[in-house]
Amino acid sequence: GIQVEQSPPDLILQEGANSTLRCNFSDSVNNLQWFHQNPWGQLINLFYIPSGTKQNGRLSATTVATERYSLLYISSSQTTDSGVYFCAVGSSGGSNYKLTFGKGTLLTVNP
Amino acid sequence: DTAVSQTPKYLVTQMGNDKSIKCEQNLGHDTMYWYKQDSKKFLKIMFSYNNKELIINETVPNRFSPKSPDKAHLNLHINSLELGDSAVYFCASSQVQGDGYTFGSGTRLTVV
User: How far is B22 from chain A (nearest CA, A)?
Assistant: First the structure.
């Protein structure tokens, strides 16, 4: 099946700093989503972005499908950005009804 | 007004018992899912349903039996619970195949 690798596994920032999280995948995809799992365990969908670039406030994401990677940018980080960020993909050659998740990036934003 | 709601939020039970987790979505989505998150936070698909029909059964032991009475509900029944079943179980839904997912808040199952 498709492999999803996220980097870095852990990231510690001071409030106000910017960061870039990366997601590499091993096959062509027709679905790519970024999620934030907050410290209370809730999974929030940030972006549905199988290709192109999207922005939502301080967050933006870019997927370069031909090169099999996606980037999540967090600008002016806040303590509420802490948590685990997951990239999840749906393989073009696989079922449309499942996502394969990466292992996540644990982000800690200190005040 | 919760979009995807799961009950219960916490479940502590003894080995060998049978338990159910309920999930309901009010988003009008066609597809619903169960995902399992293990102690290392790894998320893995268990089941997918589209319009009440089972689409994906990802090599889950047959002690786990999902049921979808209508497209707004997807319940998970687990027989003969084992210690290894301890995890957080997430329900999710999406509008069309391959669209953005909305997750429920999760059910933390602890088998003792």
Answer: 17
Name which of A102, A105, A107 is nearest A5 in CA terms. A102
Check if the beta carbon of residue A88 is closer than 8 Å to that of residue A35: yes
Q: How far apart are CA A42 and CA A48, in angstroms?
A: 17
pLDDT per residue as tens digits for the range A77-106: 999 999 999 999 998 877 778 899 999 999
Q: Does B101 touch chain A if contact means CB atoms closer than 8 Å?
A: yes
Query: B103 contacts in A (CB within 8 Å)?
Result: 35, 42-45
**Average pLDDT of the residues in B3-30:** 97
Among the listed residues B57, B94, B86, B89, the one whose alpha carbon sits nearest the alpha carbon of residue B76: B89
Q: With CA atoms as reference, report the closest residue to A95 among B5, B45, B107.
A: B45
CA distance linking residue B33 with residue B54, whole number of Å: 10
Is the pLDDT at A43 greater than 90? The verdict is: yes
Q: Residue B31 and residue A97: Cβ atoms within 8 Å? A: yes
Q: What is the mean pLDDT of residues B27-43?
A: 95
Contact yes or no for B108/B10 (Cβ under 8 A): yes
Q: What residues contact residue B69 under an 8 Å CB cut-off, 6+ apart?
A: B52, B75
Residue B97's pLDDT is 62
Distance between first and last Cα of chain B:
34
